[in-house]
């Protein structure tokens, strides 16, 4: 796994920040998000006179102030990273003020679970895409990209970061690097999806090096998430699937939710022991722990009420009840 190079901090906490990030990486985390946030803090801290690496209450409270146009998720994350750094400073014998827990109002999305009929309509519409000179590869890339999102439950960022070398077309395995929380994993595909990847690779990647983007634009660069989100809403309209707005979706990420729910639904119908399979599914989709996957038991029961009784029999008194609408992104 590629690691973020440490050593570019130059503020009053630079040596401690270097040591802290290196410690995180030694534990197996890429820590890209933390590095980026702390790099900004490194510059921010130059405004203050700091002695003996003391992270004062004044500095922490100033850092915690809400910025113009900053959403609560971003603010919460950067405060969290500084909390972790303060704990580290204390463990090293220095003084670090730890910001108190704060309540935030997060914008919550309602997960949308596609029906099998909607998935079929979406793929039919995608397969009707035609060649255009401005985007000569899109009609080949997008039908595969959306099938991979639904067929393996990938996050869209994971697919857009793929290179040619990450896709083993012979064994049908995808190598995910630097995923959410700095994790990496190997993801085997179904034979039909692996065959599509093989056909696509042979069509567009004959002369490309292993570090070339697997999904790429005319200029050879990769797509960004906003490109895909915009196209996805267009594709929903062409497929006759209503877009219900930002909060209700459907969003690109809902294809990941749908993969998980459809898999749980199928297992429940087959009478599979979900207590045994849920940890496997959790690892397959890249959750950091089984708690993130437990949400989908409730979501699946809501989407497929006809299997509610089977799921209750398979999971009753084993998993805690999951409430609310929060779920892993």
Automatic annotation (TrEMBL):
Pfam families xref list: Phage_integrase
Molecular functions per Gene Ontology: DNA binding
Gene Ontology process terms (BP): DNA integration; DNA recombination
Record keywords, A-Z: DNA recombination
InterPro entries, alphabetized: DNA_brk_join_enz, Integrase-like_cat_sf, Integrase_catalytic, Tyrosine_recombinase_XerCD
Superkingdom of origin: Bacteria
Domain Tyr recombinase, first and last residues per copy: 109-309
Protein's name in the database: Integrase
Organism the protein comes from: Roseburia inulinivorans
